[in-house]
Design a protein that fits this description.
This protein is mainly beta. It has a single domain, classed as Beta Barrel (Maltoporin, Chain A). The protein is built from 4 helices and 39 strands. β25 and β26 form a beta hairpin.
Length: 722
């Protein structure tokens, strides 16, 4: 980013958050935007229908903004977009990557079909995974595929969020919000197939257990069948449930949790391009098995949550929660290192001895709603925590031999990895206080500060030679923002936020393999506008700039280190709602300029774009409900989608790129009655062969490399509601 452009962004920020005399009228408590904390279950939208439903255009008016609780999107000085659970279901999505396909700010980083079963994404050009993932507002470090079948919605917080969560990823945060309990009896059954050959069944039931004092929600899901890769198959089971107890005095208790088991055989293969000078070949046929059919991934995860919310008085509300989780994973995969762009490669076998992880997360927060003179306050103060203990062993790595994409060779499986030889324990603690103040009906401000600490303990192979086995760091991080509403339905905002981020982990091929670097501080400036048109279409536009410490493997000494500054600036646009009464739209675009600056240790990287960061990307999803046809009872809806992935560099300096790609989707949904829905979708309609992403941090065999995108896939489901 140029200094001139950065200066312009800061000017816009100052103009937006600066005083604007003459536009404020005294705040009216009856229509104050600062509302008391409450559970949002089903809320009518301005256009009619229920929030998140197709009838309402898949719109949401509010989101869970971390410790600040549920806030209207127009009252937040941050960029947030929400993907509805009904939209996820109507797209026949069964993974976060597919569920977030309509989000223009999210780019793929890891496929859940890969050897680790992780579904990682990038937001604003930075990793937004692991400890940055949330589930119902609590940290949920996912080392296996997060389920989507029990979700009410997915909230994507774009950008730095350190004040809200203490330690977090710089690019953004993904919050998976589970389905709420129900006051009325409800039952829904669905079945179908996806990924060409995986059959599934899903039961969603809920309702009162003891009048309205004790309510419930249970989701049961199972799938099994062949994937699109020759000789590959997958099974998955999910049990998810929630109980909510309403006590007198405005107190709610909630217990929830889930258990999921995933087993996949015949995994897809990464293509490492180091050996051919990072030259990106044309994408190969994604349906062929380029590794070995005996590769597999076996992973399970269980979590239990306890939460309480209590209205203590007219002023104070207490919120507290605790989560415990346990995960285990073991995998065996084959990496392909290309020896020529035409498709020759050598195969490397990697076997893990297992990954065992226990997680915890908690918060205890107090909200206070009060007035001083004519100003309405929503003050929040308290404590948040997340921690994990991760144990694993050294991988078994060996060469198998040559192969070619036109005629892949079958090899016998070598030996297995055994035992654990490393462990790390991380704990973070965050004390925070923040206040949203409504100065008048048209102007509100947000200010806050948090003191976050991180405590890392390393054991065994995680302790690199000469490196400490204990790292502690604490930092004070502020935030400030303002929202101005010049006319009803329009909000203009600006914000500054600082974040403390966990240091990066050296990849397995680095000289300081698995060393975790010191935490880093990052800064973000953001300005934007949010508007509602015709009471049915929500639009948002954001301008942002993020600065963080650059972390990379130095090619001169093969050491993973921190050096220089990485600067990302860009524009985001998002839309959701109805263009016409029968025409729904969700999507938008991101234009991003990212480069490394001030890198004295490696000046050749200065001015270069970080690996796998797209220059631009765009998403468009349209649904049109056809007018009634005499001979066809019920409702018939057609859908179409377009997904543009901009080019992404595969190395530094930027010598080659993954080419830009556009894929198209289509669908048909028929509801003969209110209780019955038949849904058919096709993704990658034109069967485009393309590279989905490039991952440059491998696991024992050097950089993972290029991952092929999905081919044309057909999905179908039938749902019946009781």
């Amino acid at each position: 980013m140029s200094n001139e452009t950065a200066a312009h962004l800061r000017v816009v920020f100052v103009l937006i958050v600066g005083p604007m005399p003459g536009v404020c009228a005294p705040a009216n408590p009856s229509d104050s935007a600062i509302t008391e904390l409450q559970e949002v279950v089903v809320t009518p939208t301005d256009a009619g229908g229920v929030e998140g439903t197709a009838e309402g255009g898949y719109r949401y008016r509010g989101a869970d903004v971390g410790p600040l609780g549920d806030i209207p999107l127009k009252d937040t000085p941050f960029s947030i977009n929400v993907t509805s659970g009904e939209l996820i279901e109507n797209m026949n999505a069964h993974s976060p990557a597919d569920a977030l396909k309509t989000s223009p700010t999210v780019a793929p980083l890891m496929s859940p079909a890969g050897y680790s079963s992780m579904s990682r994404v990038m937001i604003r050009g930075f990793n937004a995974s692991d400890q940055s993932e949330l589930r119902d507002g609590l940290a949920d470090r996912s080392f296996t595929l997060p389920p989507v079948e029990d979700l009410d919605r997915i909230e994507v917080f774009n950008g730095v969020s350190g004040f809200l969560y203490g330690f977090s990823a710089v690019g953004g945060t993904v919050n998976y919000v589970t389905k709420p309990t129900l006051d009325a009896p409800f039952a829904e059954m669905s079945a179908g197939f996806y990924n060409r050959g995986i059959a599934f069944g899903h039961v969603d039931v809920g309702g009162p257990v003891y009048w309205d004092a004790l309510t419930s929600r249970v989701n049961l899901y199972a799938e099994s069948g062949d994937t699109y890769i020759d000789g590959s198959d997958q099974t998955r089971e999910l049990v998810s449930g929630t109980l909510r107890l309403r006590l007198c005095g405005g107190t709610h208790l909630k217990v929830s949790g889930y258990y999921q088991h995933l087993e996949a055989n015949g995994l897809p293969t990464y293509f490492n391009i180091q050996g051919i000078g990072y030259e990106v070949p044309g994408a190969f046929d994604p349906t062929r098995q380029y590794g070995q059919q005996w590769t597999y991934n076996d992973a399970w995860k269980g979590v239990v949550d306890f939460a309480i919310e209590s209205r203590l008085s007219d002023i104070f509300t207490l919120r507290a929660a605790y989560r415990w989780g346990d995960m285990w994973r073991r995998y065996r995969f084959v990496g392909a290192r290309l020896t020529d762009p035409g498709g020759g490669y050598t195969e490397t076998f990697v076997d893990s001895s297992g990954n065992d992880e226990r997680t915890s997360a908690a918060y205890a927060l107090m909200d206070a709603g009060f007035k001083t003179w004519a100003f309405a306050h929503k003050l929040t103060f308290g404590y948040t925590h997340w921690g994990f203990s991760f144990e694993r062993g050294v991988n078994a790595v060996s060469g198998l031999g040559p192969s070619h994409v036109d005629d892949p060779i079958d090899y016998e499986m070598p030996g297995r990895a055994k035992g654990y030889d490393r462990n790390l324990r991380t704990d973070t603690h965050n004390l925070l206080i923040g206040d949203r103040i409504e100065l008048c009906s048209a102007f509100s401000v947000l200010g806050g500060v948090s003191y976050a600490t991180i405590d890392n303990h390393y054991h065994g192979a995680y302790v690199a030679p000469g490196a400490p086995d204990h790292v502690w760091q604490g930092e004070l991080t502020p935030t400030a923002g303002a929202v101005f509403k010049p006319i009803p339905g329009v909000s203009i905002y600006g914000s500054y936020i600082q974040a403390l981020e966990q240091g990066g982990t050296a990849p397995g091929f680095a000289a300081n393999a698995y060393q975790i670097l010191d935490p880093t501080l990052s800064d973000q400036y953001e300005a934007g506008i949010k508007a509602t048109l015709w009471d049915r279409l929500d639009l948002s536009l954001a301008f942002f700039q993020i600065e963080k410490i650059n972390q990379y493997v130095d090619p001169t000494d093969n050491v993973y280190k921190q050096d220089g500054v990485e600067v990302h600036e860009g524009i985001e646009f998002y839309a959701s709602g109805k263009l016409l009464n029968n025409l729904r739209v969700v999507g938008g675009f991101t234009v991003l300029s990212a480069e490394i600056q001030e890198a004295p240790g490696n000046p050749l990287t200065e001015g270069e774009t970080p690996v796998n960061v797209p220059e631009e990307q765009a998403r468009l999803y349209l649904e049109y409900e056809l007018p009634g046809v005499r001979w066809l009872p019920g409702a018939l809806t057609v859908s179409a989608g377009a997904n543009y992935y901009g080019r992404r560099p595969v190395n530094i300096p930027n010598e080659d790129y993954i080419p830009a790609t556009t894929t198209f989707d289509a669908g048909l949904r028929y509801q003969p009655t209110e209780d019955l829905t038949v849904n058919f979708t096709v993704s990658n309609l034109l069967d485009e062969h393309y590279w989905a992403y490039y991952r440059n941090q491998g696991d024992g065999a050097g950089e993972d490399g290029l991952m092929l995108g999905d081919p044309r896939l057909f999905s179908a489901s039938v749902k019946y509601s009781f």
